[in-house]
Amino acid sequence: MAARSIASLSLSFGLVSIPVKLYSATESGSTVRFNLLAPDGSRMKQQYVSEKDQKVVARADMVKGYEFEKDHFVLFTPDELKALEESSSHVVEIVHFIPEKAVDPIYYDKAYLLAPDKRGGKPYTLLMEAMRESGRCALARWAWKSKQYVVQIRPTDGGLVLQQLLYADEVRSARDLGIEKVEVSKGELQLALQLIEQISTDTYDPAQYEDEVKERWGDTDAYKESARRASQYTKDDWLRIKSESGANIERFAELLRAGAEPTGTEAKDVAEEHRAQISRWFYDCGYEIHRGLAEMYVADPRFTKVYEDVEPGLARFISEAIIANAERRS
Predict the structure, then answer these.
(1) CA 261, CA 255: separation in Å to the nearest integer?
(2) What's the confidence (pLDDT) of residue 137?
(3) Residue 312 — φ and ψ, nearest 5°?
(4) How many CB atoms lie within 10 A of CB 307?
(5) Quick one: pLDDT at residue 217?
């Protein structure tokens, strides 16, 4: 589906005015939507209740207000709200050109894409190439939906990005956390630099970092069933799941410490408990699926580390026990 513009704007600086169209730069990657239902599966309706007299307030009777101090509000009529909306400006006024790395990304808020509107192609391209060549971006003022924004306009692959920026009082500083400053030796620093160099790259390709879980299992019945069940669990449910899982892993670890064989009866029985827990809480975990998980526990370093942090050699022990249990049941 072709992208639809949100608004028509003008980039303005000096005597130059560039007509552009505004587009949202992001969209939600989730395709699954869940509804809150009553226990019998019927839909529920939301009601708003006055804190003062506990009476239900109809939507038509609601008013909007701005809280200027705790529990003190300035109320606005519909006409006043409409006037605020109409005060939005279609002019994005560029006030400075600054080095493109001058803005700390912590100040980044919502991003938009800008495309040239009619008769705006030439000046749009000139501005984009001039900023790219100079290594600078634009800072601008923009009144949008009754709020004044400071925005950054920067060149990117194929076009311009308009980035809303947060104000200073909207951003916290790491200095407020009281982080202890610890001295490091030159040798320690050199080792850290070597580790960084080993996995360094000169570019960022977002296509390499897709939602791995969804990419690998999103179309499977097991993934869909797990997502459905997980959406219904309470905090107490998750605490129980964590407790059961931790106890199961500890039983594996105790067998490993005692010198038991992963193909022994005790280890296979604990593996069967592990499979039953997955089936009980997430999805029907058959023996072939369970075998696949076992192989992943030793093939994927992230899973391996979870078990190795409990007891060295535990990942392989659990993997072999699960496979032995699957073979016993086949």
Answers:
(1) 8
(2) 95
(3) -55, 130
(4) 22
(5) 52
Confidence (pLDDT) at 87: 56
Cα–Cα nearest to 157, from 94, 204, 120, 117: 204
Structural domains present in the chain? 7-24+86-168 (2.40.290.10), 222-329 (1.10.490.50)
The whole-number average pLDDT for the span 297-325 is: 91
- Give pLDDT, residue 321: 96
For residue 297, give the H/E element and its range. helix 287-299
- Separation of first and last alpha carbons in the chain: 49
Burial class of residue 137 (count of CB atoms within 10 Å of its CB; 0-12, 13-18, 19+): buried
Token couple for 318? 């659990």
Taking only the tens place, the pLDDT of each residue in 22-43 is 999 887 554 445 566 677 767 7
pLDDT of residue 208: 60
pLDDT of res. 204:
67
Q: Structure tokens of 65? A: 């207000």
Tell me which DSSP letter residue 61 carries: G
CA distance 29 to 210: 10
Rounded mean pLDDT, 195-216: 66
| Model confidence at 90: pLDDT above 80 | yes
Q: What whole-number distance in Å separates Cα of residue 31 and Cα of residue 230?
A: 16
Helix then strand then coil, % of the chain, to nearest 5: 45, 25, 30
In order, the DSSP letters of 194-225 are HHHHHT--S---GGGG--HHHHHHTTSHHHHH
pLDDT at 215: 55
In terms of phi and psi (left: phi > 0; alpha: psi -120 to 50; beta: otherwise), the region of 214 is alpha
Q: Where are the beta strands (DSSP E) in 7-146?
A: 7-13, 16-24, 48-49, 56-57, 64-69, 72-76, 91-99, 108-116, 136-144
Query: What is d(CA 304, CA 42) in angstroms, rounded to the nearest whole number?
Result: 44
